[in-house]
Amino acid sequence: MKHTFTVQEEYKGLRLDVYLANAIPEVPSRMFIKKVIDAGQVMVNGRVEKTKYKIATGDNIETDFNEETLAPKDISAEKMELDILYEDEDLAVINKPTGLTVHPASGSQSGTLVNGLMYHYQELSDLNGPVRPGIVHRLDKDTSGLILIAKTNVAHARLGRQFEKHTIIKRYVARVEGKVQFDQGVINVPLEKHKKYHDQRQIAPEGKGKEAITLYQVLKRFPKSTLVALYPQTGRTHQLRVHMKHLGHTILGDDKYGRKDTFARLALHAQGIAFTHPVLKTYVEFSCPTPQEFLKEELYHAGT
Question: H helices within the chain, ranges in order?
């Protein structure tokens, strides 16, 4: 994976690892970038520099690394209770609990959904490499709900094309701060990587960023919060969380874009998914209940 950058004035003084974590969309974490730098796979003006190197305007930075070579090795199968909503020879639909990371990354090689899948299934697709067997798409660690698992490479590739064409329909439910004014609406605002925090996204200036579209519908109103259904039309990282914040109604319990103390967890749940079965070619829909904690009366006090 090769990248070349010329440092602009606005980024001077940043640490090398911080700059690269923001500049390269594919990197999973800053720890990963540190490994890349420590492995000598980053050159600044033709020289190998350390992680803490402060970049200067005009610096020429070159990277050449293979993500798989730096990924965690020997991912182990771990016995884990899985809430399997559906499975056949080609795929499975899992209801993931909140707090469960989907796949191993730098610093966490165990206790993930992938570890549990490897214990439960003899065959999983490997199109996403050895660290993400069976993983066609992802959910944030703190988001609960339905995730598709591919058992074969054929199923994975065909499902992947459906995701690329945005023909897979996903429905989320969320409990958000405040009273949403309209019963339904469309949020069409592009997103980009956050300039300061590499693991976050932000609203992009007009004409920049990646297209991001979310449909929303009010399900129930509470005195100080609202239960909404969210239908992402694009699949950007943290799209729903950033879009709801932009609308002025941050998702409860969101420690990245709001306040963690407003709810016991991130109040976002992937409730439904619909797609064309990759082998049977039939249209299928799956759904699971809204978490009970989302339906209780007022649970927090804004401003406290």
Answer: 16-23, 30-38, 67-70, 113-120, 153-164, 239-247
> In this structure, are 156 and 174 located in the same domain?
no
Q: Which of 180, 193, 177 is nearest to 253 (CA)?
A: 177
Of the candidates 244, 222, 248, the residue with the CA atom closest to the CA atom of residue 231: 244
- Each residue's pLDDT tens digit, 36-76: 888 888 999 999 999 999 999 999 999 987 655 555 556 88
CB-CB contact of 224 with 198 (8 Å): no
Which range of residues forms the domain containing residue 113?
A: 84-165
Same domain, 23 and 52: yes
The set of catalytic residues is 140
Neighbours of 182 (CB within 10 A): 9
Let me know if residue 79 belongs to a domain: no
Quote the percentage of the chain above a pLDDT of 70.
91
Distance between CA atoms of residues 108 and 106, nearest Å: 6
Q: Are residues 110 and 58 in the same domain?
A: no
* Residue 39 belongs to a domain: yes
Nearest to 5 by CA among 72, 58, 81: 58
User: How many CB atoms neighbour CB 209 within 10 A?
Assistant: 17
- SS3 of 150-206: ECCHHHHHHHHHHHHCCCCEEEEEEEEECCCCCCEEEEECCEEECCCCCCCEEECCC
- Flag whether 56 is in a domain: yes
Distance of CA 82 to CAs 69, 94, 290, Å?
29, 7, 18
